[in-house]
Amino acid sequence: MPCPGARVRVPLGARQVVGVVLGPGQPGDDATATKPVLDTIDSEPLVPLEVLDLCAWVADYYVAGIGDTLALATP
Hints:
By secondary structure, this protein is an alpha+beta fold. It is 28% helix and 19% strand.
């Protein structure tokens, strides 16, 4: 299992996209189901845990998507 902060490749519709692992998946309904990991890009986290926490706080505070805040925090 990839560690939080690592980039992974997941399916999204008919294409594959790169995402960042935030933590272990939670069971839920179909609308919030996690995607299966097809490939792990990083063996070590690209985004440190402190930055993940900051991105989550910024997303919550500014009512933004965490993907938007992660995109701004990564090279």
